[in-house]
Write a structure and sequence with these properties.
The protein has about 110 residues and is of the alpha/beta class. It contains 4 helices and 3 strands, in the order ααβαβαβ. Helices cover about 35% and strands about 15% of the residues. A 3-stranded parallel sheet has the order 1-2-3, with helices on one face.
């Protein structure tokens, strides 16, 4: 099975809370971002972010230059719907990480 098909199937048949990697609050990832000392407007990318709640928590913490990259349309759609009006403040990229066409810039994290 192709990886895109695999991940679409996962996110179309399971709720985000039903996958083994789900975290209500991604403490470790948030702590990592905070410990880097980057400014709230520094560019941050969540690779494989899909339905992760990391973007929610980063937005709530005041980070404003966020990108979420995932291969699954269904996962990204769910995340966009979950963050509601804040979705427009995030760049959502539906691509495979090994073939992603990223914007011409560097990410701080």
């Amino acid at each position: 099975m192709q990886s895109k098909t695999h991940w679409e199937t996962i996110y179309q048949t399971k709720a985000p809370t039903q996958v083994s990697w789900y975290q209500t609050h991604p403490h470790l990832s948030l702590d990592f971002v905070r410990r880097t000392g980057v400014a709230p407007d520094s560019p941050i990318i969540d690779v494989g972010g899909g339905a992760s709640t990391l973007v929610d928590h980063l937005l709530a913490a005041g980070y404003a230059n966020l990108t979420v990259l995932d291969i699954s349309h269904a996962a990204l759609k769910g995340a966009r719907e979950r963050v509601k009006d804040l979705a427009s403040k995030v760049t959502w990229l539906e691509q495979h990480v090994t073939h992603a066409e990223l914007p011409e810039r560097e990410y701080a994290v």
